[in-house]
Amino acid sequence: MGSRYLYPHSRCWMVMVDLKDNYVVEKVWIKNRLDCCSSRINDVKIYVGDVLCGTISYDPLKLAYEVLCNDGNGFVGQTVKVVNDKSYLTLCEVKVWGKSQ
To answer: What global pTM score does this model have?
Structure first.
Protein backbone atom coordinates (compact mmCIF):
# COMPACT_ATOMS: atom_id res chain seq x y z
CA MET A 1 0.00 0.00 0.00
CA GLY A 2 2.96 2.31 0.22
CA SER A 3 6.65 2.85 0.63
CA ARG A 4 8.81 2.36 3.69
CA TYR A 5 11.68 4.63 4.63
CA LEU A 6 14.30 4.40 7.35
CA TYR A 7 15.91 7.60 8.63
CA PRO A 8 18.97 6.56 10.70
CA HIS A 9 20.83 9.86 10.58
CA SER A 10 18.19 12.17 12.00
CA ARG A 11 17.87 12.95 15.71
CA CYS A 12 15.90 9.75 16.17
CA TRP A 13 15.43 6.40 14.47
CA MET A 14 12.25 6.17 12.43
CA VAL A 15 10.46 3.97 9.95
CA MET A 16 7.88 5.77 7.83
CA VAL A 17 5.19 4.14 5.71
CA ASP A 18 3.84 6.38 2.94
CA LEU A 19 0.25 5.31 2.22
CA LYS A 20 0.15 7.47 -0.95
CA ASP A 21 -3.26 8.88 0.05
CA ASN A 22 -5.19 9.75 3.21
CA TYR A 23 -6.57 6.78 5.13
CA VAL A 24 -8.30 6.32 8.46
CA VAL A 25 -5.60 4.32 10.24
CA GLU A 26 -7.28 2.19 12.88
CA LYS A 27 -4.37 0.12 14.15
CA VAL A 28 -0.68 -0.56 13.69
CA TRP A 29 0.87 -3.97 14.36
CA ILE A 30 4.60 -4.31 15.01
CA LYS A 31 6.62 -7.51 15.23
CA ASN A 32 9.63 -7.07 17.47
CA ARG A 33 13.06 -8.72 17.25
CA LEU A 34 13.63 -11.47 19.75
CA ASP A 35 17.17 -12.51 18.88
CA CYS A 36 18.69 -9.25 20.06
CA CYS A 37 17.84 -5.90 21.57
CA SER A 38 14.12 -6.55 22.00
CA SER A 39 13.85 -4.03 24.86
CA ARG A 40 14.62 -1.18 22.43
CA ILE A 41 10.92 -1.17 21.51
CA ASN A 42 10.11 0.35 24.92
CA ASP A 43 8.64 3.86 24.55
CA VAL A 44 8.56 3.63 20.73
CA LYS A 45 5.89 6.02 19.45
CA ILE A 46 3.52 5.50 16.52
CA TYR A 47 2.22 8.53 14.63
CA VAL A 48 -0.42 8.88 11.94
CA GLY A 49 0.69 12.02 10.15
CA ASP A 50 1.75 14.19 13.08
CA VAL A 51 -0.83 12.79 15.53
CA LEU A 52 0.37 10.41 18.23
CA CYS A 53 -1.47 7.11 17.86
CA GLY A 54 0.18 5.38 20.79
CA THR A 55 3.31 4.38 22.68
CA ILE A 56 4.60 0.85 23.17
CA SER A 57 5.52 -0.51 26.59
CA TYR A 58 8.05 -3.32 26.38
CA ASP A 59 6.99 -6.73 27.60
CA PRO A 60 9.70 -9.44 27.46
CA LEU A 61 7.02 -12.10 26.83
CA LYS A 62 5.58 -10.37 23.74
CA LEU A 63 6.61 -11.01 20.16
CA ALA A 64 4.25 -8.44 18.62
CA TYR A 65 2.44 -5.28 19.66
CA GLU A 66 -0.89 -3.93 18.43
CA VAL A 67 -1.55 -0.23 18.86
CA LEU A 68 -5.13 1.00 18.40
CA CYS A 69 -5.39 4.54 17.08
CA ASN A 70 -8.06 6.63 18.79
CA ASP A 71 -9.45 3.49 20.51
CA GLY A 72 -9.86 1.80 17.12
CA ASN A 73 -11.77 4.70 15.56
CA GLY A 74 -8.63 5.77 13.75
CA PHE A 75 -6.78 8.91 12.79
CA VAL A 76 -6.62 10.29 9.25
CA GLY A 77 -3.24 10.56 7.61
CA GLN A 78 -1.05 9.73 4.65
CA THR A 79 1.95 8.53 6.64
CA VAL A 80 2.53 6.22 9.57
CA LYS A 81 5.74 6.74 11.53
CA VAL A 82 7.32 4.42 14.05
CA VAL A 83 9.79 6.49 16.06
CA ASN A 84 12.41 5.69 18.67
CA ASP A 85 13.99 8.88 19.95
CA LYS A 86 16.14 7.09 22.58
CA SER A 87 17.95 4.28 20.79
CA TYR A 88 18.22 2.32 17.58
CA LEU A 89 14.97 1.06 16.10
CA THR A 90 15.11 -2.72 15.71
CA LEU A 91 11.90 -4.16 14.26
CA CYS A 92 11.02 -7.13 12.08
CA GLU A 93 7.69 -6.09 10.57
CA VAL A 94 5.11 -3.28 10.55
CA LYS A 95 1.50 -3.68 9.37
CA VAL A 96 -1.06 -0.91 9.09
CA TRP A 97 -4.85 -1.40 9.12
CA GLY A 98 -7.30 1.21 7.96
CA LYS A 99 -9.85 2.28 5.39
CA SER A 100 -10.25 4.92 2.73
CA GLN A 101 -11.29 8.28 4.05
So the answer is: 0.87
Per-residue pLDDT of the chain (101 residues; tens, 9 = 90+): 454 555 555 556 888 999 999 999 999 999 998 888 899 999 999 999 999 999 999 999 999 999 999 999 999 999 999 999 888 888 889 999 999 98
What is the C-alpha to C-alpha distance for residues 35 and 80, in angstroms, rounded to an integer?
26
Q: Is the separation of the CB atoms in 83 and 47 below 8 Å?
A: yes
Task: For residue 3, report the phi and psi dihedrals to the nearest 5 degrees.
Answer: -105, 155
Local structure of residue 72 (DSSP, 8 states): G
Q: How far apart are CA 73 and CA 33, in angstroms?
A: 28
